[in-house]
Write a structure and sequence with these properties.
Strand content: 15-25%
Oligomer: single chain
Low-confidence stretches: 1-37
Number of strands: 9
Pfam family, one: DUF922
Radius of gyration: 22 Å
Distance between the termini: 15 Å
Number of helices: 6
Number of domains: 1
Structural class: alpha+beta
Protein name: DUF922 domain-containing protein
Shape: elongated
Helix content: 40-55%
Length: 224
């Protein structure tokens, strides 16, 4: 009786996950932390460039424009992970995203016609695209285990650390885009790197996960 009650409680707690026989989990990692995105608030990276209309948050004009930040681009490489569970065979599917946030990005009112600044912010978005593509290539090389969440998070953490260093160098060496010669060099560097990396759009990684071992099955009421 106790065993039946335990099983009933288990089913009640997990009804939303198991009722359809499909487990769907969505992870959006940024510094290995789970976050979710909304297409109404975000726009995916594309060959088309950012425009001033993408910056929906406009801050008051700067009092002192020299050496001050006129805009901030908020975007993040992300990984979307789903695991389907059918007839006890689990299939892992992974896709990558790189989205510009309408709500978290902003521009100063006095910079709304500054094409140089817009190009500089595009560079930040493009650098994130570079590391989204690099991350996808890294994930493709992995044979995932049942500990795939930690394995994905480890890759995302390493790649995010590299991305952050490059973003900081870009900002420092271009002085927010004010050093035009350095900005031109970075533009070429970013474009060349992007061209050398295959896109991930429309692609996904799909792997059949290993069978769950007997010890794990003994702890899982679905197998009892």
């Amino acid at each position: 009786m106790a065993r039946r009650l335990q099983a009933a409680n288990y089913i009640t707690r997990h009804l939303a996950l198991w009722i359809t026989g499909l487990i769907l989990t969505l992870f959006q990692f940024n510094r290995a932390q789970a976050q979710f995105t909304d297409s109404l608030r975000d726009v995916s990276w594309s060959q088309g460039k950012l425009t001033f209309n993408n910056f929906r948050v406009v801050r008051p004009a700067r009092k002192k424009r020299a050496l001050s930040v006129g805009a901030v681009t908020s975007s993040q490489p992300g990984v979307e992970v789903s695991v389907s569970n059918l007839d006890l065979q689990r299939v892992l599917k992974i896709t990558m995203t790189n989205r510009f946030s309408y709500n978290k990005s902003w521009i100063s009112a006095d910079a709304l016609q500054d094409s140089g600044l817009l190009q500089h912010e595009q560079g930040h978005f493009d650098i994130n695209e570079i590391y989204t593509r690099k991350t996808f290539q890294q994930l493709k090389r992995i044979k995932f285990s049942n500990n795939f969440q930690a394995e994905i998070a480890a890759v995302m953490t390493i790649m995010d650390q590299e991305r952050s260093k490059v973003q900081q160098s870009y900002e420092r060496q271009t002085l927010h885009g004010l050093l035009h010669e350095n900005q031109t060099k970075w533009n070429a560097r970013i474009e060349n790197t992007l061209s050398s990396l295959p896109p991930y759009e429309g692609q996904r990684i799909s792997q059949t996960l290993p069978p769950i071992d007997n010890e794990a099955k003994d702890k899982d009421l679905r197998y009892q």
